[in-house]
Write a structure and sequence with these properties.
With about 270 residues, the protein is mainly α. It has one domain (about 25-245). It contains 8 helices and 4 strands. It has helices at about 25-50, 55-65, 75-95, 100-125, 135-160, 170-185, 195-220, 225-240; strands at about 1-5, 5-10, 15-20, 260-265. The protein has a two-stranded antiparallel ribbon with strand order 1-4. β2 (about 5-10) and β3 (about 15-20) form a beta hairpin. The longest helix is centred in the C-terminal third of the chain and has 29 residues, at about 195-220. It is globular, with a radius of gyration of 21 Å.
């Protein structure tokens, strides 16, 4: 099946260029994934004792425990290599699938959903929160880390210009800089400061909302708290599947003729 991507043209230096219209997935997906990341990160921290989205935070925890002669959680040590492997495997799947744009996005979102659903079933069955340093908790934590590795790679492979949906330091920096440029009343130091501010605030709020919902879910549902990110991951798959506009690769070819729509094949 082929789909048409509407394009806008502009003249620059005597040459005409085409700019792809952002798909609905490009508009809503980062915010939705930031909510999922907040849920996964805090649910993992409260139930199995490690950061599952902000993986590098585990290095800080391990360092502090070593200095204070505390007991190190094995999952905190395993999180980094498992995350690296998850990103690498996601890349291999994307390469083998030969898909691009929205087709690849659908595939990787489905994989992420299956991973979180597996985590939900595993946690509901084994109750890893009973012993956060036990073997079952370590397995649960590694599934969660793998899920986040898939999400990081998903964004980089399908929406290369999208900001991080899990590490909020960069988004907070963008929000502050965008706000300062906006209220200064002078020439902004950063282009598209209003868009940058809006995008950063959406991700910050989304991640915070995810953390709040995860806290409530852990209090009332305990190991079943993973049902919330599982449900949202299913929503992401459903919404992406309903998107009838194909997302172009990072380097999209120019249209054959200026002002005409570009014809692309739906992966």
């Amino acid at each position: 099946m082929s789909t048409v991507v509407a394009t806008a043209t502009r003249a620059e230096g005597g040459k005409s260029h085409t700019t792809p219209t952002p798909s609905r997935a490009e508009q809503w997906l980062p915010t939705l994934l930031s909510v999922i990341a907040g849920m996964v990160d805090l649910t993992g921290f409260l139930t199995v004792g490690i950061f599952t989205a902000h993986v590098t935070g585990n290095i800080v925890l391990v360092g502090a425990l070593i200095v204070r002669h505390g007991r190190v959680n094995p999952a905190q040590i395993l999180a980094i290599p498992v995350f690296v492997i998850a990103v690498a495997v996601t890349w291999l799947i994307a390469k083998a699938s030969a898909r691009r744009g929205l087709g690849l996005m659908r595939l990787l979102l489905l994989i992420q959903f299956l991973l979180i659903a597996t985590l939900l079933i595993f946690s509901a069955t084994t109750k890893p929160s009973v012993d956060p340093r036990g073997v079952m908790a370590t397995f649960a934590a590694m599934i969660a880390v793998t899920t986040m590795g898939c999400q990081y790679a998903l964004l980089r492979l399908t929406l290369p210009v999208a900001p991080s949906t899990a590490v909020m330091t960069g988004n907070l920096t963008n929000a502050v800089l965008g706000l300062l440029d906006l209220i200064s009343g002078s020439q902004p130091l950063i282009e598209n400061d209003r868009k940058r501010l809006t995008r950063a605030l959406r991700l910050l709020v989304g991640f915070f909302v995810g953390c709040v919902l995860a806290t409530a879910a852990v209090i009332y549902l305990r190991d079943w708290a993973w049902s919330l990110p599982t449900a949202l991951a299913a929503v992401a798959v459903a919404l992406c599947s309903g998107d009838n506009i194909k997302s172009l690769p990072a380097k999209a070819p120019l249209a054959g003729k200026v002002g005409l729509p570009t014809e692309t094949a739906d992966a």
